[in-house]
Amino acid sequence: MKFIENQVHKIKPHFEKGGKLEKLYWGFEAFETFLFVSDRTANDGVHIKDGIDLKRTMFTVVVALIPALLFGMWNVGHQHYLAIGELTALSDGFLDKFIFGAIKVLPIVVVAYGVGLGIEFAIAMVRNHPVNEGFLVSGMLIPLLMPPTIPLWMVALATAFAVVLGKEAFGGTGMNILNVALLARVFIFFAYPTFISGDAVWVAGEAANFVDGFSGATPLGVAYLGGADALASAGVHDYSMWSMILGTIPGSIGETSVIAIGIGALILIVTGIGSWRVILSVLVGAFLTASVFSWAGISFFQGVSPFTHMIMGSMLFAAVFMATDPVTAAQTTQGKWIYGFLIGVFGMIIRALNPAYPEGWMLAILLMNVFAPTIDHFIVQSNIKRRVSRAAL
Amino acid sequence: MTKLSRGYDIKLLGKAKDSFLSAGQPTLYAMKPTDVQGIGPIPKLTVEIGSEVLAGDPVFFDKAHPGVQFCSPVSGEVVEIRRGERRSITEVVILSDNNIEYRKHDVPSLGSASREDLVKTMCDAGAWVLIKQRPFNVLADPEVVPRDIFVSCWDTAPLAADQNKVIEGREAAFQTGLDVLSRLTDGAVHLGVGPGSADVYTKAKGVQVHAFSGPHPAGNVGVQIHHIKPISKGDTVWTLGPQDVAIIGKLFTDGVYNPERVVAVTGDELKETGYWKTRIGASIAPAVQENTKHDNVRYISGNVLTGTRVEKDGFLGLYHDHISVVEEGNQMEMFGWLLPSYKRPSRSRTFLSWLRPNKEYHVNTNNHGDERAYVMTGQYDAVVPMDILPVYLIKSILYSDFEQMEGLGIYEVVEEDLALCEFVCTSKQPVQKILRSGLDLVRADG
Q1: A47 interaction partners in chain B (CB closer than 8 Å)
Q2: ipTM exceeding the 0.90 mark
Q3: What does pTM read for this prediction?
Q4: Nearest C-alpha of chain A: how many angstroms from B102?
Q5: Are A30 and A67 within one domain?
Q6: Which of B332, B389, B403 has the highest number of chain A CBs within 10 A, making it the mutation to test binding with A?
Q7: Closest Cβ–Cβ partner in B324, B370, B433 for A45
Q8: What one-character-per-residue DSSP string does B130-190 give?
Q9: Among A213, A258, A260, B221, which residue is least crowded by beta carbons within 10 Å?
């Protein structure tokens, strides 16, 4: 430990003002503060500070994403072997499936982190400010939102778009209006729609090798076209309630398993890093909306119960990891309830009533990201009004 | 009883033992213009180096408040006038003759004196400077009649002095002080008490007593004002501490300014903690010298959230009843953000310590991270038990929007009320400093 500390101290002067590598200072600083919490002390206010900082906060979110990532890797392999008709039982070939999935997924993770952090470091050094930790989470979220078949260059392009236009253009972590990871996904969704929607993208492998009757459609896609009946008789696919909860279904890498997402949600809520208010209000909004549609019988999902709606598609992943982004969500306590609830409502409206595409969470969250400051504005104004009316008494 | 649920008690080791320290009295005392908000940096000195003073003799006054004297706490000789940036005066140091002789005042009798007489006596004797005025937490203006006067008799700050202990033996003076104060306002004198507050507070006469409970900052006078009768635009209220009330009381019973202070001497770095009976402006040296476990420590006049950093031979602040000593955290810590190498207090549940809420911690002054833009939300709200949106208030100051600052309640808060926000802040924002700049801006503007 002491040895590393000494080495860091030794090379530090090169990066400081007047050193040869002065321009790279903030890059060096990012690595230094990653290795060591600095010896800076509290100086112009309180004399002691809480142990929490942004690095620990972001890292906690990354930890919460790990169950979904690991399960996603295995499931990418599992879906592939299902498609080619080998090792079809859940318990078969765990390692084969996991390794196959890892080979597909890890490059996406590496590309997302590489491109995103590269841009962040470069901009930090050019604009002379510290490297912010926000991308630690975005870099993990982006791969989990992608289908396993996504071309790597597309991941790189989308990440660059999201980081530059979605975040750095606004001033970096904490200043962005739209969720960075969703922006990466929405970029691909509108620029290269065939690579991120439809039935063919959710299972890795050569379609020519797939067994007969294997469509690769997600439960959501199946239910959208054929309602509850189609879901119950999906040929080689098992789209029972239980497989949707377990997550052994086709879908984006991180979105399929209710259990893995649930573990992440638990980590976020227990540590207080993710807002339980937002998560809960998204679920309540979605459930109520699904119930209304189901009761009125006006959705494309004929006969699909509101409960099934809750475990299908990307809603849970979106509620737990995307809607809770504190920077782009509403910031006031009451605002969070409204924000989450409306995401639930709009997301379900898009899912159930949109004739073109049966999933709405990405668009619902981005829409509410835009409206979050407006919601907060009204909460703040009501606080101000209370104060004014008190003074008038 | 007002039960406050939001807030946070930082549990620290090094609580003051319930006994008096054997430490003697210092030879040096100082009056510090920097202790007082709202006065100029270069007050008018009424002494020079070598002047002999009695306890209660004026030392300096602020040019904008010419009648309000800052007086020597002891009799002796002015030995040094320390200056800071741009010739501002930071400390007027007095060498005590260890045999305190007082300047005597002919005090008017409470029953017959006019309000004007009372104010004049206090201003002249040096007791006026103990009163602070809100909004802005500045020296009270003798020209105004405050809406109300508030005294918090319960201190919830980390390791704070037990307010029952510090008033022991001065109960009568405290009541006399309250009698004087109630003559100064058209409203009422309000006492805020906590669970376990002594009879001297809960049974005080001629005042309104309000009971509070809850974690810090429930004992802060600002929080109590907010729940008793909040400060609106145009309101002026005064605040002071229980010991200040007793000093005012003594002035009117004994005819002398006797700035006695019982001080809690706390901190895990000390060999011996306890209470120390001394006077305002005392050098802290007798209480801390040869009393620390090692040298890498920070001495603070006041508590760890709001106190002023002083040297080990520095002086007790005008308004302080607390000396804190904490370890300096000037060491690097490998992967400290990930796997901390020692236990630290935190409101965050990312540390497993939240499972043991009553554990007391050793602390140091490490910043535990670097300043960042705001990311997390709801952290400040959780530690401010008032109907105020702290982050929006701080942001309105950062972009200098006066109307927004007023609307969001800048008149209701001073630094100590938002100090916990600064402690819990993930983004390590200097909340108190920002708030002070906002308070100064609004005050200067009008």
Answers
A1: 298, 300, 304-305, 307, 309, 324, 326, 365
A2: yes
A3: 0.94
A4: 37
A5: no
A6: B332
A7: B433
A8: G-EEETTTEE--TTS--SEEEEE----STT---HHHHHTT-HHHHHHHHHHHHHH-SS-EE
A9: A213
